[in-house]
Amino acid sequence: MQNGSSSRTVGIDAIAVHVPRLYLDLRDEWARVRAPELGEASVEQLVGKVTKGVGVTEMAVPDAHEDSATLAAMAAVKAITHAGIDPRDVGTIAVGTETTVDQSKSIGAYVLGMIEEHFGVELRRVGAPQFQFACIGATYALESAVNAFRAGEATKPYSLVIATDVSKYPLKSAGEYTQGAGAVAMLVSESPRLLALDARVAGTITRDERDFFRPNGLSTAVVDGKYSIDVYLGAIAEATEMYLERARAELGRPGARIDELADHLLFHVPFPRMSEYAALRVLGEAWRADGSLRAALAAAAPQLLSPELERDPAVRKEAEKALAKSVIFRECYERRIEPSLALSRRIGNIYSGSMYLALASLLETAADRAALAGSRAAFFSYGSGASARVFSGVFVDPQRAYVPHVTQALDGARVPLDVATYERLHAGPSSDGPPSLAQPGKSVLPPAGEFALARIGTDQGPARTDLGYRYYEWVAS
Ligand SMILES: CC(C)(COP(=O)(O)OP(=O)(O)OC[C@H]1O[C@@H](n2cnc3c(N)ncnc32)[C@H](O)[C@@H]1OP(=O)(O)O)[C@@H](O)C(=O)NCCC(=O)NCCS
After folding, report:
1. Has residue 269 been placed in a domain?
2. Which one in 143, 174, 351, 353 has a CA-CA gap of 20 to 30 Å to 13?
């Protein structure tokens, strides 16, 4: 067993992804409109920056009837259906989100209502909490679900952990091309069919930071872009150190480097290029501490061996730039990281689900999914504000446990948006009062075969009060 001395093997039994059907192509009209607005030298320059420098080509955009709750419920239905389980065997619905639909009520309760309606079941004897900590919320939800099983406290065979978000930055800002929307649902169980999580190895750190946040009342995030990258990298490096101390002991691999312990490195992906920055930091730290790689590094990225690296961020930047071009890094990156980025290049940032989308991407794009069995994935989860958690797991039977479905959805049923319609959706419904009380606007694509936000409650009186309550319904295709 891969899990040290843990008596219970707990992990992810199934995973499913749902993204909106609408998307914005960042190489077409949007680039022509924005290049002058963003002060770029040319359209080609902006397209190059967004597609190569940032790494994203298309972004999923929610329609007027979609929100974090409908996306979560859709992903949940897919996970339950793909796994072929009875929804009444789910004991907890734990949702990680930073774009909640209500300031008090858990999205988990809305999702529960939608699942009940869809499957015609009653799920009352369940817990349905919401976890919030920027993009790491779903990881804390996963930890909680896993711990309940490990402690023998789970009352039913499965817990549903859902990461769901609509990532939104101001138009015409540098954050605009790192938006997206989507949800990832995972069934957690004992003896999981997909991925057995390693016990007692996780490294978790938290620092009080101002890199990214969304003050109450704002619909778009406040972000210090470049600083957020630095905080992400520092936090991930620190959590990796803690993970390694524990993993080397628990997995019986004293002195092992991260790339010797793990076959796949799955990072939080606010934008695909961020995974490359993170890989450079994590692998750079691992390799420069290994005397046997000294000669190879001296040739490929000599600055990496400089004692100044710890003290001077400019030296570290130069070292990582050189390492990025080296054969030793490129070979490792192509094999262990690149397969996890295919989906986010076409979906964009889905905040709390983005690292789990990387897991789905690895599974979805693997030429030989069965061959992943027995290999270990390390997860580098990050949430601004800021917290990082590094943990790992071993694939069990990915060939049977994973049902490919995302690429087909992206290739088959998506509809591109023009800029005017995208901007209308971005603005949201107009309202005299708080936007959360506004009725949903007109959908671009009428809902079909999906959950939809039907209306917002307006009553406030002695007989009945539902002002602001969100009514969801299943709309058949
Ligand atoms: C990610 C973000 C900081 C990028 O900022 P930006 O000002 O648009 O982009 P930059 O000018 O830094 O360029 C990004 C990269 O594209 C490269 N680039 C620029 N033009 C290019 C072109 N035409 N072709 C290829 N690459 C290009 C840059 O050299 C840079 O790469 P480097 O880091 O290797 O030097 C910005 O989109 C943002 O703030 N996003 C939201 C915050 C976020 O997601 N933070 C992550 C932590 S959670």
Report:
1. yes
2. 351
**Torsion sign (Cα): 311, 317, 319, 320:** positive
Cα of 301 vs centre of ligand 1, distance in Å, is 22
pTM across the whole model: 0.97
Structure confidence at residue 247 as a pLDDT band (50, 70, 90):
very high
Instruction: Please write the tens of the pLDDT for every residue from 329-341.
Output: 999 999 999 999 9
Domain count, the chain: 1
Q: Return the residue whose CA atom lies nearest to atom 17 of ligand 1.
A: 53
Report the pocket of ligand 1 as residue ranges, CB < 6 Å: 45, 48-49, 52-54, 174-175, 178, 212, 223, 225-226, 228-229, 232, 270-271, 274, 384
Candidate ranges 261-265, 299-303, 432-436; pick with highest mean pLDDT: 261-265
Give the domain CATH number at 204: 3.40.47.10
Q: How far is CA 466 from CA 109, 233, 243, 461, in A?
A: 16, 44, 47, 9
Domain contains 456: no
Domain presence at residue 245: yes
Q: Which helix (H) or strand (E) holds 314?
A: helix 313-325
Per residue in 233-243, pLDDT (tens digit) is 999 999 999 99
**Rounded Cα distance, 381 and 214, in Å:** 19
Compute, in angstroms, the gap from residue 41 CA to the centroid of ligand 1.
Answer: 15
**In the predicted structure, residue 2 carries a pLDDT above the cut 70:** no
Residue 288: CA count within 13 A, CB half-sphere: 22
Residue 316 CA to ligand 1 centre (angstroms): 18
